[in-house]
Amino acid sequence: MAARYIEIKNSIQKDILSHRYQVGEKIPSERELAAQYGVTRVTLQKAMHVLEQEGFIERIHGKGMFVTKVIEDNVYMLNNGTGDSILGFSREFGQQAKISSRLVTHQIIPAPQTVASQLELDAQQDVHFIRRIRFIDDVPVLVEDSWINSDVIATIPQAVLEQRSLYQYIEEVTGKKIKFYNSVIEGDLFNDELAALLSISPGLPMLKVSGVTKLEDGKAFNFSCSYNRADKFKIKNSWVGK
Amino acid sequence: MAARYIEIKNSIQKDILSHRYQVGEKIPSERELAAQYGVTRVTLQKAMHVLEQEGFIERIHGKGMFVTKVIEDNVYMLNNGTGDSILGFSREFGQQAKISSRLVTHQIIPAPQTVASQLELDAQQDVHFIRRIRFIDDVPVLVEDSWINSDVIATIPQAVLEQRSLYQYIEEVTGKKIKFYNSVIEGDLFNDELAALLSISPGLPMLKVSGVTKLEDGKAFNFSCSYNRADKFKIKNSWVGK
DNA sequence: TAGTGGTCTAGACCACCTG
DNA sequence: AGGTGGTCTAGACCACTAG
């Protein structure tokens, strides 16, 4: 049972995506929507603030709330620069793109120092190391490395790694939700090794996204790093500032 | 007069930065802090949610709130990928870096189509076009292009462009606060023109950040695009997900 | 002046964690 | 059991925008 404000947020988001609320135009006022959904203004505002953060609406003091004009684009968006790129995939025109994965390697190794520090565990402690290639419409577009604390997940079925979402599996096994933290975006060039995995030329530009994933109880369980073809991806920074 | 929750957020942020609250350790509970500041829990929570968004603390249900372990780094952070890089500059170890600018060009031109669309004005309408180079410790690290609606600001003194913050000037002149929207991050390689401006080799990796800036009344007044040396910058994605 | 979003109060109940 | 964050109510007043 999700929180009421999340339900409301999803409901209004659906209304926006289905063009029930027209692009650029005003949506009903907080007081109206609060009455419609049978909640107080405070609760409704929480929903609307999330929608604003995620870039669906703009709130203008004294005027009202407006559906954000969405900019069309022919590249893919990594929605929030979170590690698990596959979760962030979205296309302005629906999800008809075919997404697939290939597992390059999966082994248990002693945690490298940088990984151990990120996962807040002792060096040399065992972690899963997983390298996967992601395809969109059968074109390889990114390499993703993950280091996962083996205390949290002892074994990972190969089927999970070949299919959709490792995170969903971890949520199921642990019974806890996940949170992303400290995501960092860098630019670089593809080296020979990564370029070979994607069948592209070394020296092409890359967007590198790394970050830590934690369980809702604060336990860090995953450090991931993805190497994305910069000609295929942009990152939308969902942020409203000042 | 800022909102109370913003004052409280700044106060606690200061306590974190001054290490009054130790890294990784628990800070007082919501109820305690609310009592200290003489506000209700709801108000205090607003402050803490902002601190969480900005990466200063982690909130863990049932346990408490903890100061985030900050990862040291020897590159600069573009805090939120907002257009005006100079505002986003921050170094983990204080602000002792020397920041300067050089104005390359400032002219009034008819708005190119993409700019007009972003600024929601008619094509061919006049805009300022400004290109500046930013230096850190006298090393050129980025080029920033800005297109500014001349309806909002008719004239811009050269001194403003050579000094610190154009945005601060605009806030003063218009008497309105500014908001950032729709910031997008891309990776690319420096071409000959941009590389020459920074005295680097073409083909080096770049982080490109573009976005629209609006006044608080919703009026779009600035489209900016910055080209950042990827060996000098990372972008911290202040986001807490799920 | 009427309508809008922005902030804030003083409670309440729930879900989660630890001892 | 006691403390923690997560959510929600039913009001209230303020600041801003419009006609």
TrEMBL record, chains A, B:
Keywords: DNA-binding, Transcription, Transcription regulation. SMART domains: HTH_GNTR, UTRA. GO terms for biological process: negative regulation of DNA-templated transcription. It holds the Pfam family UTRA. The keyword Transcription regulation applies. One of its GO terms (molecular function) is DNA binding. The keyword Transcription regulation applies. Residues 2-70 form the HTH gntR-type domain. It comes from the Bacteria. InterPro entries: Bact_HTH_transcr_reg (IPR050679), Chorismate_lyase_/UTRA_dom_sf (IPR028978), Tscrpt_reg_HTH_GntR (IPR000524), UTRA (IPR011663), WH-like_DNA-bd_sf (IPR036388), WH_DNA-bd_sf (IPR036390). This is GntR family transcriptional regulator.
